[in-house]
Design brief:
CATH superfamily of the largest domain in chain B: Thiamin diphosphate (ThDP)-binding fold, Pyr/PP domains
CATH topology of the largest domain in chain B: Rossmann fold
Number of domains of chain A: 1
Oligomer: heterodimer
Largest sheet of chain A: 6 strands, mixed
Order of helices and strands of chain A: EHEEEHEHEHHHH
Helix content of chain B: 25-40%
Helix content of chain A: 25-40%
Strand order of the largest sheet of chain A: 2-3-1-4-5-6
CATH topology of chain A: Pyruvate-ferredoxin Oxidoreductase, domain 3
Radius of gyration of chain B: 21 Å
Shape of chain B: globular
Distance between the termini of chain A: 25 Å
Strand content of chain B: 15-25%
Radius of gyration of chain A: 15 Å
Order of helices and strands of chain B: EHEHEHEHEEHEHEHEHHEEHEHEHEH
Strand content of chain A: 15-25%
Distance between the termini of chain B: 45 Å
Chain lengths: ~180, ~375
């Protein structure tokens, strides 16, 4: 089965790394197929950033996301811009600290969207003391909520994707996110 | 043993280069190719190679020509605006028969266009960008695995025929991440050096066209020039026979070996009414479109051009002979489309899905074109 995931936020939040971790976990450690793509503007930080991951048990030909099964919104701009592409009954994960779910309430009700709150930024700040691991907190929440990757694969993937020496903090961030929901 | 990695196309290209024996990179970073340079800047010194960030792309092409004549497999990577600047030295590499690899990760164009968006607008520039008659080899990867494999193949072909070889990627394949498998056992073509210094002629009109290549400092008497030259390499610019023999040999060494160089992949073509021809990232959409069409009972097949140049005439003619409609899918307003027309000589039945703007065509966009042609 093909599952399409889109993660949207600001440049600098680590949205792309979150997608790489999901893709690597799915393909290298869970032995499924995965493709990760991204779009970004010319600016390095602060602009809109979008990362897409397709996970499947079969070979993935078309690599881009068209109708996401899962949308992860880490900015309100991303939430408003991308919600309209969601499939009926899709999963929406938002960081309430950086989004306002009421802005898209109508779409959620009309399309039977399953909404999950994952306060990644606040958790990163309060529990890890590092705002920059909000993306890894979010990977934890995505893993728990969607089951798209296994917990073991997620942890292996994080260890091999984050800078050396930061593994412990990042695994802690992942666990915090996993336990949020 | 083999290695499994989840990496970006541009990183795979850099790894392929190192695996093929590339030990010199000179380039000027440009989106969306920058990660090729970035990875090689980090990795080349670890294997005894050198990385130079040049002042511009003309100099980059010049530097890798020098690197190659120094006896080192050499490469540059760029995007359309850089490829434009390199054209003068690319012609020089053709006439001096210098093996180099030029990677072009294509973006929206003309001019500086769309740095972060995908396109395939440089296909004809790879074919005809420098002045004069020459026969380029170009490979177009459709996946991260192929970006690795085709970079290795590009180095092998460059050495085999002593020509510049282009790897014509695009932003989608350059920035996409997926799993690749790197085998331990990969065929690498080494530089063929001449054996004897006695009576050695570096540009001899030999039958297969490709002479062994000495490098500077080995003691061979050699002169390298962009002027029309005789078999010794000395300028001989007013003799029509010298020029004819030289340029004909340069073209023939590729044209006489198209059976070995040209490569396509195809599926569902045997009974197909409609055949889609594509290359690079859009092939991913084409495969899905063909599969969907087949599931609906429509006889649709596809041909993927691994080597847009030299154009795989024989393979395309054979596979497309019985199809009623040909649809060329590419991210430009028609480039390989004209080549397909030229080869099939059936203008009325060759159609174009040419998409610009930076996004690859979707399977549904391709299917809707096929349905308009009669749903077959």
């Amino acid at each position: 089965m093909r599952t399409e995931i889109r993660i949207g936020g600001f440049g600098g939040q680590g949205v792309i790394l979150a997608g790489i971790i999901l893709g690597k976990a799915a393909s290298i450690f869970d032995k499924n197929e995965a493709v990760q793509t991204q779009s970004y503007g010319p600016e390095a930080r602060g602009g809109a950033s979008k990362c897409e991951v397709v996970v499947s048990d079969a070979v993935i030909d078309y690599p881009k996301v068209q109708r996401p099964d899962i949308l992860v919104a880490m900015s309100n701009e991303a939430l408003i811009k991308y919600i309209v592409d969601l499939k009926d009954g899709a999963t929406l994960i938002v960081d309430p600290g950086t989004t306002d779910i009421e802005d898209v309430r109508e779409f959620i009700d009309e399309h039977n969207i399953k909404v999950f709150n994952a306060p990644a930024t606040k958790t990163a700040n309060d529990e890890i003391g590092l705002k920059i691991v909000a993306n890894i907190v979010m990977v934890g929440a995505i893993t728990k909520i969607t089951g798209i990757i296994s917990k073991d694969a997620a942890i292996e993937s994080i260890k091999s994707s984050v800078p050396k020496g930061t593994e412990e903090k990042n695994i802690k961030a992942f666990e915090a996110g996993y336990n949020l929901v | 043993m083999s290695e499994e990695l989840f990496i970006q196309g541009n990183e795979a290209c850099a790894k392929g280069a190192i695996r093929a024996g590339c030990r010199f990179f000179a380039g000027y970073p440009i989106t969306p190719s920058t990660e090729v340079a970035e990875t090689l800047a980090r990795e080349l010194p670890k294997v005894g190679g050198s990385f130079v960030q040049m002042e511009d792309e003309i100099a980059s092409a010049g530097a890798i020509i020098g690197g190659s004549w120094g006896g080192t497999k050499s490469m540059t990577a760029t995007s359309g605006p850089g490829l434009s600047l390199m054209q003068e030295n690319i012609g020089y590499a053709f006439i001096t028969e210098t093996p180099i690899v030029v990677v072009d990760v294509q973006r929206g164009s003309p001019s500086t266009g769309q740095p972060t968006m995908a396109a395939q607008g440089d296909m004809m520039q790879a074919r005809w960008g420098s002045h004069g008659d020459y026969e380029p080899i170009a490979l177009s990867p459709s996946s991260v695995q192929e970006f690795f494999d085709f970079t290795v193949k590009a180095f092998n072909l460059a050495e085999e025929y002593r020509v510049p070889v282009f790897v014509m990627a695009d932003e989608v394949v350059g920035h996409m991440r997926e799993k690749i498998v790197i085998d331990d056992d990969i065929e690498i073509v080494p530089r063929k050096m001449p054996e004897s210094k006695e009576d050695f002629l570096p540009f001899k009109n030999i039958e297969n066209g490709t002479n062994p290549m000495p490098s500077f400092g080995q003691g061979f008497n050699i002169h390298v020039t962009g002027l029309t030259h005789d078999e010794r390499g000395y300028p001989d610019t007013n003799n029509p026979d010298t020029h004819d023999a030289l340029v004909q040999r340069l073209c023939d060494k590729v044209l006489n070996n198209t059976d070995k160089i040209c490569s396509v992949k195809s599926k569902y073509c045997d009974d197909a009414d409609t055949i889609i021809i594509s290359y690079g990232a859009p092939v991913r959409s084409v495969i899905e479109a063909a599969r969907k069409a087949r599931a609906e009972g429509n006889k649709v097949g596809y041909i993927k051009l691994d080597t847009p140049w030299p154009f795989p005439e024989k393979q395309v003619l054979d596979l497309a002979a019985d199809a009623s409609n040909i649809v060329v899918v590419e991210m430009n307003l028609g480039q390989m489309y004209y080549e397909v027309n030229r080869v099939l000589r059936r203008d009325a039945n060759v159609h174009l899905v040419g998409k610009i703007g930076g996004l690859m065509p979707t399977p549904d966009e391709i299917l809707s074109k096929i349905n308009k042609l009669g749903g077959k």
